[in-house]
Fold each of these.
Amino acid sequence: MSRTVMIVVSDNQETVDSAKKYWENHDVTVHAYSSAQWREGLDNAFFRQQLAAGVPALVSGNSPVTTDAGGNVLQFPSATTTSSNVQKMEELEAQAIENAIVQYKGNLTEAAKALGIGRATLYRKVKQYHIDPSAARKKKSTPVAA
């Protein structure tokens, strides 16, 4: 059985408390550090050794980590590191779902089959992305003038 650990670096105690409260119900151990504690930790050889031992870490900013952690320190995505022409996965997923629903004229069961996901998953994602399948059904029932 694996154990999930989340490291939170924040000077906002309210954010830390909120994260701890949320994740404790999901069997996730939360380790919280202030910015100062995190910086001090990076000066500590044991702390850096843990990062280098295969525990990936995310960092933000231009290049705040100047340790020998190697490839285990991953750049955290931020507004400055994302390209404007790259779409987020959520946007692509929502677009694919909308296209499938329109193609199958609002039939969510057929759209789910075409997307390769379960019907319940599609219903959840439709709700998550605020997609209205009834709009596709209305298009199908519109009479065509001859």
Amino acid sequence: MGKFSGAALAAIVCGAATAASCAWPAQAATSTTAASTAASTATAAACYASGGNLYCGNAANAPIYATPGYTKPNGNPETVVDRLETTFSYFKCYVSGQPHGGGNSIWYHTYGDQTGRWGYVAAVNVWTSTDPYPGVARC
């Protein structure tokens, strides 16, 4: 839902004329650390902002939370409302929330692939080179 397949992403990143010969890193990566790091770095280069929205690579099966955090104020876990099954997604805007493993507290607002519910993905799961990504609107 609103996400890009590897082929569509190749067309965006490499241009329609060369998409068939373009090796998109998310498809080519292996389980080794070096390949995984290379894929993340290459995917970050493919991120772009347009109209205040972010289009960027992300972790497969990344959880989308109801609020921008892992826990509620009472200490209970926050609800996972959906997941990003694809590895390139649309993000409407960003907010500041709970700190996460990415070394900041930026969360991107998007909707999921399973139920279409809206929520927040920690920036650690979005392959941006900096957070918030330049040109992306604050929610």
Amino acid sequence: MSDVTGRMTADFPLWSPEQMFTLAADIERYPDFIPWCKSARVVSRQDTMWQVENHFGAGPVDATFRTIARPDPPRSLEITATQAPFRHFRLEWRFAPLPGGGCRVAASYALALRSPILHGLARLAMPEATRKVILRFKERAATLYGGDTSRML
């Protein structure tokens, strides 16, 4: 079974890398704007590593698992897991200033699920999920920081 992989990049001309990092690092608010996230709770927080309990679900698919988040403000946030339902999971967010202001957000992911059925579903769902995450990040940034997003959405 090959990994499910992908990349996404979006420019956020209205908000700084610090603001976008803060939005991405506010893991406990993910249920408010990340598709299929039912809960996310930081159970242990050290300077360079957070342990997070996650609950995601859609329809009959429901999973609770732990991840490790490694923040490097305001440049990056890496999230990894090896606990079921994953064989492995890695999501890396990068935040870079745009010339003239704003932020370019780039993310890459690679995952493999233990269940072949869930792995196949993830392979089919991830392109749409990626699109929704970027849209929800823009909506969330507008809610938190203000600004006219009509030209960005």
Amino acid sequence: MSQPTPMMGQSPTNEYGPIGQEGTFLDHVGGIEWRVEPDAVSIRLTVRPAHVNPNGTVHGGLILTLLDFTLGAEVERSLGAGQQGHPITIQLSSSMIGAASLGETVLGSARVTARTKTMSFVSGEITCGDRLIASATAVFRNPRIA
């Protein structure tokens, strides 16, 4: 099993690509892509049959997974190089507002709202076109400085 690809030091790009989490839970979920830019991280996922609930819409657990990954990736990007490890989720609060169906593409975005030496506070959302699917706020434990 390969190790997760660290984000720190990754070159910014305007293209979505694999998240580099081969052999991990996120690899098992499948289909998550991300784009790392100098001032933001965004994710996207096209809803597959394995992603939906019996109602034919994306499963709420997947939405929470996408929020956790998006918010944590934005914390990591905003901290920059020199960190040892990855941010750890301390608290995640979310509101499920809408739904996405099979074949639709959802996008995730986040922004750090505050930071202390040891914690980062972040908010974000998952959208599908012009529809808000879910929003969240979270607290992450910052990685140690290398």
